[in-house]
Design goal:
Length: about 140
C-alpha cells in the first residue's frame, strides 16, 4: 500500500465549529502563540508552524464539534497525486476544482472514513470573499 503523498510544506487541517469565533480566536491565539492568518465574519484560520497545523474556526450554533478534516498541500499537482494514491488504494473519491469554500478558491479531493468523517486533500488557489460551500464544508 502506498502512502498518500504530502509535500514537506503540507500540514494537517482541523476545522472546528465554535459558538463564538472572537472568544475562540482569543483562546487559540494564546494556546498556539500565533495570530490568525485570515479573519472574516464568523471565520478564522491559523497557519501554525509548530505543530504544522492549519486550524480553521467556523462559527456555528453547536460549538465544540468537528466541522471537517483535511491535508493542505502546496499545489494542484499535489492534489492530483493524492487523488491517484487514494484511488489506487481502492478508496472512493470526490473531486472539486475551483470551488469557493472557507474564503478561498480551492482544488480538492475528498474521501470519507467508515464512520462518515470527511477528509479533504486541498490547495488554496487564491483568496475569495465567499465562505459558502453550504457555509463551509
Amino acid at each position: 500500500m502506498s502512502q498518500v503523498p504530502v509535500p514537506a510544506t503540507g500540514r494537517v487541517q482541523l476545522a472546528l465549529n465554535v459558538s463564538d469565533v472572537d472568544r475562540a480566536v482569543e483562546f487559540y491565539s494564546k494556546a498556539f502563540g500565533v495570530e490568525p492568518a485570515k479573519r472574516r465574519p464568523g471565520y478564522a484560520n491559523f497557519a501554525i508552524e509548530r505543530p504544522p497545523l492549519k486550524l480553521v474556526l467556523i462559527e456555528a450554533a453547536e460549538g465544540g464539534t468537528l466541522n471537517h478534516l483535511g491535508v493542505e498541500v502546496i499545489d494542484t499537482p499535489a492534489v492530483n497525486d493524492a487523488t491517484k494514491a487514494l484511488v489506487d488504494a481502492g478508496l472512493t473519491t470526490f473531486e472539486e476544482q475551483g470551488v469557493e469554500c472557507c474564503y478561498a478558491k480551492q482544488d480538492k479531493v475528498f474521501v470519507t472514513d467508515p464512520d462518515g468523517a470527511e477528509w479533504e486533500w486541498y490547495t488554496v488557489l487564491e483568496d475569495s470573499p465567499t465562505l459558502t460551500k453550504a457555509q463551509c464544508c
